[in-house]
């Protein structure tokens, strides 16, 4: 079995139906439609919650570069003098000086529910009327990278909310994966990848987290581990209040540079061997590095114990898939897995490809035996 294709791209977004349409005083375009959360709906279809990055067509004008910002009164364009910023990356600009990293975005991300056929290969309907947009000050620069978990009869969706106040993880809940309710901030520190396990362990919710930082302490020279970003664990009685787990989760291995940086991918799901978790490893290269997807099996009772893992990637960037979108490309060498659903003898895996489009791959369960 080998099914691997792009199922949704910026060309599939109707800009006229965007929640920003007519609300931003400048021309916009879809920079990317990618990093989709994935779950199965009660009707048997699949739901992708697609991150749509809507960008300013001409962010630089009149000697300034502009950022889109949500407010309760509407969307605003904030101008920054060009001499104060670095504009090398088309997705963002960095402030010069100040003693620490400060950036702003030339796009604003919102979430678009896209309903797929049960196999994930055909778009059935795009639910523009149910788009999730910024609704609080801590989301004023956008809502990014949904991850959806079903725990019992409830769906839990974590997102990254971006603002000058904080770079936080926020939680949405739903009884049907159709109507979502914002519960607020659940992790206050910078954290890009919070994934809630699809099931309780000893009556508690568990999650993978990946706190960001610029400083790490070295492991001993003979350690099998490499210092750097790692996948941590946290526990909660209610999915709202989280305590970091004392033992670490998945750490970068000293034997390879391909996973020198890592973070969670798809929410861990239960299998006969334990919890299957798909995660991304980043090999240093160029501006953003090479992103690949890897897998591990975690102990069903103590997810800090890794039962099985491999250095070989499960998914790699696939330039042949994005070749028809070559005129839209601004980044390459990135596959960023964000969802997984059980489909019998295989899994349907959803990823963002090149920070541009949504990729669906069917992967046989025998790959994880």
UniProtKB/TrEMBL annotation:
One Pfam family per UniProt: Glyco_hydro_130
InterPro entries per record: Glyco_hydro_beta-prop_sf (IPR023296), Mannoside_phosphorylase (IPR007184)
Gene3D superfamilies the UniProt entry points to: Glycosyl hydrolase domain, family 43 (2.115.10.20)
Source organism, top-level taxon: Bacteria
MF-aspect GO terms: glycosyltransferase activity; hydrolase activity, acting on glycosyl bonds
UniProt keyword terms in alphabetical order: Glycosidase, Glycosyltransferase, Hydrolase, Transferase
UniProt keyword Hydrolase, yes or no: yes
Family: Belongs to the glycosyl hydrolase 130 family.
Protein name, as recorded: Glycosidase
Taxonomic lineage from the root: Bacteria, Pseudomonadati, Pseudomonadota, Alphaproteobacteria, Sphingomonadales
């Amino acid at each position: 079995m080998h099914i691997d294709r792009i199922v949704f791209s910026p060309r599939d977004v109707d800009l006229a139906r965007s929640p920003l349409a007519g609300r931003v005083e400048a021309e916009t375009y879809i920079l990317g439609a990618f990093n989709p959360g994935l779950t199965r709906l009660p009707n048997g279809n699949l739901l992708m919650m697609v991150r749509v990055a809507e960008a300013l067509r001409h962010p630089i004008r009149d000697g300034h570069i502009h950022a889109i910002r949500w407010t309760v009164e509407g969307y605003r364009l904030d101008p920054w003098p060009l001499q104060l910023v670095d504009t090398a990356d088309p997705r963002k600009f960095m402030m010069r000086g100040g003693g620490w990293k400060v950036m702003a975005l030339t796009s604003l991300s919102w979430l678009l529910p896209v309903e797929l056929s049960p196999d994930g290969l055909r778009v059935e309907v795009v639910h523009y009327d149910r788009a999730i947009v910024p609704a609080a000050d801590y989301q004023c620069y956008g809502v990014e990278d949904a991850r959806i978990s079903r725990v019992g009869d409830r769906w839990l969706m974590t997102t990254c909310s971006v603002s000058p106040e904080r770079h936080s993880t926020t939680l949405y809940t739903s009884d049907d994966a159709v109507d979502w309710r914002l519960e607020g901030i659940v992790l206050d520190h910078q954290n890009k990848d919070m994934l809630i396990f699809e099931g309780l362990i000893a009556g508690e919710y568990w999650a993978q987290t990946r706190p960001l930082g610029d400083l790490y302490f070295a492991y001993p020279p003979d350690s099998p581990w490499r210092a750097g970003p790692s996948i941590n664990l946290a526990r909660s009685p209610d999915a709202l209040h989280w305590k970091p787990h004392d033992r670490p989760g998945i750490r970068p291995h000293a034997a390879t540079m391909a996973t020198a940086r890592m973070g969670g991918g798809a929410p861990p799901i239960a299998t006969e061997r334990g919890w299957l978790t798909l995660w991304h490893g980043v090999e240093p290269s160029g501006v953003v590095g090479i992103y690949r997807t890897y897998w591990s099996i975690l102990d069903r009772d103590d997810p800090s114990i890794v039962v099985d893992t491999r250095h070989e990637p499960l998914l790699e960037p696939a330039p042949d898939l994005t070749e028809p979108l070559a005129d839209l490309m601004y980044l390459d060498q990135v596959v960023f897995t964000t969802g997984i659903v059980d489909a019998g003898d295989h899994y349907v895996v959803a990823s963002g490809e090149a920070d541009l489009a949504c990729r669906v791959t069917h992967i046989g369960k025998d790959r994880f035996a």
